[in-house]
Design goal:
The protein is mostly helical. 77% of the residues lie in helices and 5% in strands. The chain is built from five helices and four strands. It has a four-stranded mixed sheet. Strand 1 and strand 2 form a beta hairpin. Helix 1 runs antiparallel to helix 3 and helix 2 runs antiparallel to helix 3. The longest helix has 82 residues.
Length: 238
């Protein structure tokens, strides 16, 4: 049992090494930068969507004003055509038609001015969308680069973790399953420490002392006995 407990200490070293590797994997700098770049891409997409909606609304207004101006122009030409066709001989009627043409043309100019205003409002939005598209392209390239870099770093750590797991498996293959299970239960409740050396009266797991009489009893316990720290509950190795 003494030899098994020594092996268990080595198993714990492997487990702690695995935890360090997992922490290293979880805190890779590429991962944090990837999160930042992804947040930036999301913000850019949201901004582009909002600007596109605003630009499209202006574009619809522009089309509406353009159609209205063309319709007014066509109506004015139609009235003018009747005026000069020779079909109308009444001066009063011709005068009224001329007034209609002038009114249609004034209305057309007003509509065209409104169309021009909308075009002027749309131009900076088009420019901003072009800038956003460039930034989105750059961020997408950064995301791809960071993703590839993160995958490479993860593969390196995963290979190291696989070595540790294999070494751990080789250590536990001949250990009593009940002993391993007891160790793992304690690791789950004592922040990763399931077994520790007893040096003098001090548990090296929690660095607290146990009564001297109890420490002496543990050291003189018969083969096959398992002792636990009264303070942290981990398995003690005398």
């Amino acid at each position: 049992m003494s030899e098994d407990l020594d092996i268990l200490l080595t198993v714990q070293e492997r487990d702690l090494a695995l935890e360090r590797l997992q922490h290293r994997r979880d805190t890779l700098p590429e991962r944090a930068r990837l999160v930042q770049a992804d947040a930036q891409a999301t913000a850019l997409a949201a901004r582009a969507q909002a600007i596109t909606a605003e630009r499209d609304a202006l574009a619809r207004d522009e089309t509406k004003f353009d159609d209205e101006a063309r319709s007014l122009e066509a109506k004015a030409k139609e009235v003018e055509a009747r005026m000069y066709s020779g079909e109308i001989s009444s001066p009063r009627e011709l005068q009224a038609m001329q007034a209609d043409v002038e009114q249609l043309q004034r209305h057309q100019r007003d509509v065209e001015n409104r169309e021009l205003e909308v075009m002027e409002q749309r131009e900076p939005l088009d420019a901003e969308l072009a800038t956003l598209a460039e930034r989105q392209t750059a961020v997408a390239a950064e995301l791809a680069e960071l993703g590839a870099s993160l995958a490479d770093a993860e593969r390196v750590i995963d290979a190291e973790m696989e070595v540790e797991r294999d070494a751990r498996g080789a250590l536990t293959v001949d250990l009593d399953p009940n002993l391993v299970a007891a160790y793992e239960r304690r690791r789950d409740t004592v922040q990763g420490v399931g077994v520790a050396r007893l040096v003098g009266t001090t548990c090296q797991g929690c660095h607290l002392s146990i009564p001297a009489i109890e420490a002496e009893q543990i050291k003189k316990a018969p083969e096959g006995s398992i002792a636990y720290c009264d303070n942290c509950g981990c398995i003690l190795v005398p």
